[in-house]
Amino acid sequence: MISNTQQSSVDDPSTGTSLPEGDGDRPLTAHTIRAATDADVPEILRLIDTSYDRQDDLLRLRYWRWKHEANPFGASPCLVAESNGRLVGVRVFLRWAWQSGDRTVRAVRAVDTATHPEWRGRGIFSRLTLRLVEQMQREGISFVYNTPNAKSMPGYLKMGWSRVGRVPLWIRPHRVSRAVRRSLTQRHADTPVLKGLDTVPYTLQEERLPAFLSDVAPVDDRYHTARTLPYLSWRYGDIPGLTYRARFDTAGDSGALLVARGRRRGRLREVTISELLVTPSPRGIELARHLLSALLSSADADYVVACAAPGTAERSVLARSGFVPVPRVGPHFTARRLAPDAPDPSTWASWRCSIGDLELF
Length: 361
Known about the structure:
single chain; alpha+beta; Aminopeptidase; seven-stranded mixed β-sheet; 11 helices; about 30% strand
């Protein structure tokens, strides 16, 4: 899984690395930080389950292989902390390639991490994270980013991350009265079923799709993901345990592509629009609005949520389809710049992303 096999003891001054305690002040115990190997994966998954006191099928072997090994941007760099032959900490970065104009900018996202409960408060999290940051700097990675929760964000800020802000979401209320009744009766929501959309593999077989993806690829210095068929297939078609649906429509030289999934949020039924790609023309905007209308009429959801950058056809579609901006409810977004030769990732003016780029998966 990882090509870097460098090992170092945390109390070995020859490493030349000075790392802050960051996540506690309990006394250090001898442990080794090293690159993970394929043989470590089963124990890594057990450590994640132990750390978060859960049994989550999505963190099992098949999902791990999809996320960290089959990723078209490359295998995930992963470091583990080991003591007396057992793993006590893990830190994984997910590789990503962002487009900025005609450049491909290599980045990583700080994703899976876990520390064994008996080892919390001893600096394992910050040591693993900063050691992996240093490794990425040596590789020439431009920046690291993530969407931390309120509890973990102070630790990232202490390690040099900067606040980008909240992900700017747009929401379209739908069947509000039903949601209110469900809340009053304290009934749990079922996952919305997107009957009006096709499977992602079926949609990706459309003969017109490759030309459409080429046509809508933005010439934009803001960071965006290149929506290629291999990427869409990996991200939305092959993912174990999550079901995305899609619909593609064209008329003449115009087209629109929608990728979405349903999920439960407490007693609410949410539909997330992970991707909305639109030919920047009146006809393309009309096609996209029809796709959203079909989604709303068929999905048993309380609301629909999406994200689109200013000045884009996608933003126009949302604004004309009853979506309203909700700037204070999106996840926190943070980044740490590792190289100066790319647009500053710590400001939203540098980003043109979809929910599919940033949602947790």
